[in-house]
UniProtKB/TrEMBL annotation:
NCBIfam families: nickel_nikA. It comes from Paenibacillus pectinilyticus. GO terms for molecular function: heme binding; nickel cation binding; peptide transmembrane transporter activity. It is found in: Cell membrane. Its main location: membrane. One of its GO terms (biological process) is nickel cation transport. The lineage of its organism: Bacteria, Bacillati, Bacillota, Bacilli, Bacillales. This is Nickel ABC transporter, nickel/metallophore periplasmic binding protein. Keywords: Signal. InterPro entries: CntA-like (IPR011980), Peptide/Ni-bd (IPR030678), SBP_5 (IPR039424), SBP_5_CS (IPR023765), SBP_5_dom (IPR000914). It comes from the Bacteria. It holds the Pfam family SBP_bac_5. It is a lipid-anchor. PROSITE patterns: PROKAR_LIPOPROTEIN, SBP_BACTERIAL_5. Gene3D superfamilies: Dipeptide-binding Protein, Domain 3 (3.10.105.10), Periplasmic binding protein-like II (3.40.190.10).
Amino acid sequence: MTRKQSTRFIPIIAVLLALLILVVGCTKPEPASNDKTAPAQKPKEITVSWMRDLGPSNPHAYYPNQLFSQSMLYEPLVSYNEGGELKPYLAESWNISTDGKEYTFKLRKNIKFSDGSSFNAAIVKRNFDAIMKNKSTHSWLGIAKVLEKTEIVDEHTIKLTLSEPYYPALQDLATVRPFRFLGEAGFPEGDDTLKDLKAPIGTGPWMITEYKQDQYTVFTRNPNYWGEQPTVDKVTVKIIPDSETRVLAFEKGELDMLFGEGAISLDAYKQLQGTGKYGTALSDPVGTRNILLNSSNEMLADQRVRLALQHGINKQSIVDGILGGVEQKADSLLSNNYPYVDLKVNPIDYSTAKATAYLDEAGWKLAPGQTIREKDGKKLELELVYDKTDPIQKVLGEAVQAAWGEIGVKLNIAGMELTAATKLLREGKFDVRFWFNSGVPYDPHTLINAVKEPSFGVAEAHSRIPMKQELDKKIQTVLASTNEVERKKLYTEILTTLHEQSVIVPISYIKQTVVYNKSLSNVTFPASRWDHPFNGIK
């Protein structure tokens, strides 16, 4: 190339260099990184609290295991959905024999436990056999009482044989415990899972990755989950026994959500709602807040005394005051949004005149200048036990104490740890206590089964009512009935008798509350009362 030719290219090169500088100057600099890839999105985490330790998270055991955490780890064959619809879950389909005694389930294939082991008919049978080792403990759930045999048909088919027809079998299998499934590596020696487990291994969307007793539990997504993964990557549950401390922690931003019955007082719920700073929601009725009067106590064996005590409670005042108008006054044991429940009974309303008349008629007299009624030299004095971690129960107990004092009944109240209180209930060693029915999908069949089956406190509380044997026969008949018309008729008769006997005193229809940081969305209530709310949160 001649000098003249090379000189001609200089302006062109200058232009190209200028363009290159311009392009580079307009380009965003890459972040300092060795691999030049975009940074990973920050994991979505939420922190919540609970009033007590979650326990070992054993799918086949009760307290201290907590229902919501069990539902995060373990799954049922059948799921309960809005409107009471039962849908396939770990079982993709099922068939019921014409006599109602055999249930054959086709299991989904390619399902893994959180440790990567397979879910199949063999592990289903092992779980059912482990549960039935403790049949009497689980017989509050009717299927445990009638389940006779579990058979493996093939690798993904299991057959359950019942000793008699039991119409709510599928509803019972949809409950949170005990009929959910533990992975093989979680079984203790001897397979007595009621007493112990090696590790909480389930098929659910969550797994426990960190646990410090009485402080916190950390749940992370199960990488082997067969279904749709939750949007949230991690849920930390802090244990905060005191409800006021929970509220303060939430207000300081240490918690993202307050959920669960009894987690906070209903006054606190309304106060947080009133700030407008948080998301809040209130469920439809999920159960009934009751007082249980133990008729095995000689004083409470008389129906007139039980009716007097119910007439002595101003339920509407409790709803408007203690419950902040959030719940609804209960006029019967169950609200009419349960299957087979359409009760038309006369409410046992507040009336000190009726209460006084019943007590006088029963022989409990109030002497001049005295404040406690007596009969045959014995004072009408009772004790109410409550769960001391529940912020509502203590205040409610004090209200009942004051109300009964006005009609000459002395009520002592005692707060206990839930374990101790539950033990007394199961043994029938109590006068008066708070009691809540289970809600859907358990009721109404589980409520009436509890009235019939001893060892859970409710049957013991009804032991002295005069028609107990006849009532038990009706309960047996309705649970085995395959006739819808007969079922509805029998349920009406049974629930009406329970209402009239006033062993279970309904106070209000419970509603669940949730308060959450507005950075969260799609916060909803599960269809089943005791399931967890975390899967859909974004």
